[in-house]
Specification:
It comes from Noviherbaspirillum galbum. This protein is of the alpha/beta class. The protein is 45% helix and 18% strand. It contains 17 helices and 18 strands. Helix 5 runs parallel beside helix 6, helix 11 packs parallel to helix 12 (329-348) and helix 11 (294-307) crosses helix 15. Bound molecules: 6-O-phosphono-beta-D-fructofuranose. 6-O-phosphono-beta-D-fructofuranose (F6P) is lined by residues 17-18, 37-39, 153, 177-178, 287, 324-325. 6-O-phosphono-beta-D-fructofuranose is lined by residues 17-18, 37-39, 153, 177-178, 287, 324-325.
Length: 488
């Protein structure tokens, strides 16, 4: 309702790299999958509520072969409410724009995870060309000359300016889903000015935290000639005003109470894993990515077991790790390192079938994940750096029983809001081990008290609030612009 009143009939176009539904071919059947992506979790909920068009990269194997490069599909499949418009990329384009510049350049540049960014001119050229292709697709989809365009993430830093050139009256809201580093760190990017100029084509630029927002403003101040109004949080560049704000992203709070209880979920998960039902379980859910602190998490589990031998045989940590960007060498090496570490820890604590670390390096659907969340006494989110991290919020939403403890890295955006979690420095292995043990031995009353307050917070500051705040700011700016146009 809030979204509808903010939009008041405006045309909405979302643009992101990742598509919300992937069609995969399985024998003669086509399976529709949801990707492991915080961006999709959040934006899909908004699109279901307000309809419109979502422009994204068509990535599924079945798309090309069976859906026959169908450019437009009505989604969600079961209850269509908006249009998915796919842009097809050649393997050279995907290699240069997505794997190369976005994920070997910008991703490590913006995350302080001590992986050196790689910048190649060929990748940059593809990044520019693909941004133009998506900008053209947005312009082509637009039915009006002033649509609301929601640009998602670091794959499209140049697109706001490109769309602005074709549709000067558009309201362009760009949300950067990953952290923004300090000016020195960002300054090593050979195309830093072009990226900043591209982003300043936006009407509104959103980051998860005030800290990332401040880093961005300082970066612009360092590298471009602009007028910055710190109080109003605006930047004027090239005759255009951009509002730069922090909008912490969230999840859609589940509407109805779920079909299964925590006990039922435990039974399902324990039978999945071949564990007795009184076994203590910890859970981690991530893409298999070097920013997520999975190695440090396993080391904390190992240290906890060393310090508390009574936990050996009674506790297992289940890591669900969705394979991600696997054609990149950095990711292959990281996956191998995670597997090797899990095997070493398991060999060290070997006792019959007991495994302290259960590594499931595969994609799990949302319903399965809910069972794992409900069955686990503790959820560990130990990212080395993360824009927000929605797994933390999903664990909280799943705990209707008000039990369970969240161990949360201080380097996530989520740590700025979720104070009742056990906040840790993921690089400090002893601290992680202590927090894990504290979580596993925490009295039920304390768990309830903490979980209740976390749940109240996530329920209130949900994804509709995130989108609503951006759209409210956009509506104000649109109104101001209309008045200014009338006066001139
Ligand atoms: O949230 C950051 C993010 O990079 C999103 O942009 C993306 O959808 C998600 O992580 C998963 O990454 P990818 O789309 O590369 O699989």
């Amino acid at each position: 309702q809030l979204l509808h009143s903010e939009l008041a009939g405006d045309e909405v176009i979302v643009v992101s790299n990742r598509e919300p539904y992937i069609h995969e071919k399985n024998g003669n059947r086509i399976e529709v999958k949801r990707p492991a992506s915080g961006l999709v979790t959040a934006v899909e909920a908004v699109m279901r509520a307000c309809s419109g068009t979502w422009v994204a990269h068509g990535s599924g194997s079945a798309d090309r072969m069976v859906v026959d490069r169908c450019d437009r599909v009505a989604v969600p499949p079961a209850n269509p409410s908006y249009t998915l418009r796919r842009v097809w990329l050649s393997s050279e384009e995907e290699q240069g724009y997505y794997y190369g510049f976005a994920n070997e350049g910008l991703w490590p540049l913006c995350h302080i995870a001590h992986v050196r960014p790689v910048f190649r001119s060929e990748d940059w050229n593809q990044y520019v060309a693909v941004n133009q292709r998506f900008a053209d697709a947005v312009v082509k989809e637009a039915r009006t000359d002033d649509p609301v365009v929601l640009v998602q993430d670091y794959h499209f830093a140049l697109l706001p300016r490109m769309v602005r050139q074709a549709l000067p009256r558009a309201t362009i809201i760009t949300f950067w889903h990953i952290p923004w580093p300090n000016p020195e760190s960002f300054g090593i990017c050979p195309w830093r000015e072009q990226i900043l100029e591209g982003m300043l084509g936006s009407t509104i630029l959103g980051f998860h935290t005030p800290f990332h927002r401040r880093n961005f403003i300082e970066t612009v101040d360092r590298y471009l000639e602009t007028r910055i109004e710190a109080e109003a949080s605006t930047i004027s560049y090239d005759g255009k005003l951009t509002l730069v704000e922090a909008y912490p992203i969230s999840i859609a709070w589940p509407e109805s109470t779920t079909a299964s209880t925590a006990e039922e979920s435990r039974a399902i998960v324990c039978s999945d894993l071949g564990l007795p039902e009184d076994h203590l379980i910890g859970i981690g859910v991530d893409r298999l990515d070097y920013t997520k602190g999975i190695v440090e998490r396993f080391q904390a589990v190992e240290r906890m077991l060393e310090r508390h031998p009574d936990m050996v045989g009674r506790f297992s940590f289940v890591q669900i790790a969705a394979p991600s960007r696997s054609s990149l060498e950095e990711y292959q090496q990281f996956a191998a390192r995670v597997r090797k570490l899990a095997a070493r820890i398991n060999a060290r604590c070997a006792n019959g079938a007991y495994q302290p670390i259960v590594l499931k390096a595969e994609h799990h659907d949302h319903d399965r994940l809910l069972h794992y969340y409900r069955a686990s006494q503790v959820c560990m989110v130990t990212s080395l750096h993360d824009g927000m991290n929605l797994v933390a919020k999903e664990y909280i939403a799943a705990r209707e029983d008000e039990q369970g403890v969240l161990v949360l890295s201080q380097f996530t955006g989520a740590a700025r809001e979720l104070h009742e979690a056990l906040i840790v420095n993921p690089y400090h292995i002893e601290q992680g081990a202590d927090a894990l043990h504290r979580a596993l031995t925490m009295p039920r009353d304390e768990q309830r008290e903490r979980m209740r307050s976390l749940r109240a917070l996530v329920r209130e500051f949900n994804v509709y609030r995130w989108a609503g705040r951006m759209l409210l700011d956009a509506a104000r700016l649109r109104q101001r612009e209309r008045i200014a146009t009338r006066i001139h």
